[in-house]
Design goal:
metal ion binding, Peptide Deformylase, five-stranded antiparallel sheet, 7 strands, about 190 residues, 3 helices, alpha+beta
């Protein structure tokens, strides 16, 4: 297992839809392990493969001491909406209220290719939606109303991390504040 650099806002991989996983092999299991270790080191509540530069439909989460992963997810969402604070490891220390469905049912596969269904409400539902958005090239700031998005973009442009990259175009891992709900890969 290895902690990987987390890509920051501005990296094209974050807004590019990820490819379906077709090989459920040792490399995929290593990716899940790397994602989990990177998420926990950040620390975060979730992390999607594009956030470490891998354009595959894979994400991990750690909500209420339950660690999980999902491959090639699809979501069924409730009509009931929740507002709540949301952040993202690719946007260090940026937290904004973001509307999400209150309940999410995620269908996909585990790292061995077995079908799984994950049902969540509140924080787990938020995480499932946030991480699936990453796989679709959608960022949490895209879910904000125009006024909030303008404020967020101003804060991003003024941040110390904006535009920071390391050798090879990879962004460094940045620690987020403990109140961030979704370093959270989220």
């Amino acid at each position: 297992m290895a902690i990987q650099p987390i890509r920051l806002f501005g990296d094209p991989v974050l807004v590019t839809p990820a490819s379906e996983v077709v090989n459920f092999d040792k490399e995929l299991r290593q990716l899940v392990a790397d994602l989990t270790q990177t998420m926990q080191a950040a620390p975060g509540a979730g992390l999607a493969a594009p956030q470490i530069g891998v354009p595959l439909r894979v994400f991990v989460w750690d909500i209420n001491d339950e660690i999980g992963h999902l491959i090639n997810p699809s979501l069924d969402l409730s009509a009931e909406i929740q507002d709540g604070e949301e952040g993202c490891l690719s946007f260090p220390n940026l937290v904004y209220d973001t509307p999400r469905a209150f309940k999410a049912v995620a269908k996909g596969f585990n790292m061995h290719g077995d079908p799984v269904v994950i049902e969540g409400t509140e924080l787990l539902a938020r995480c499932l939606q946030h991480e699936t958005d990453h796989l679709d090239g959608v960022l949490f700031i895209d879910r904000m109303n125009s006024e909030q998005r303008k404020l967020a973009m101003k804060e991003i442009r003024e941040s110390e991390w904006f535009g920071v990259a390391t050798e090879g175009g990879k962004s460094p891992i940045v620690k987020v504040s403990p109140h961030t709900t979704f370093g959270l890969g989220l």
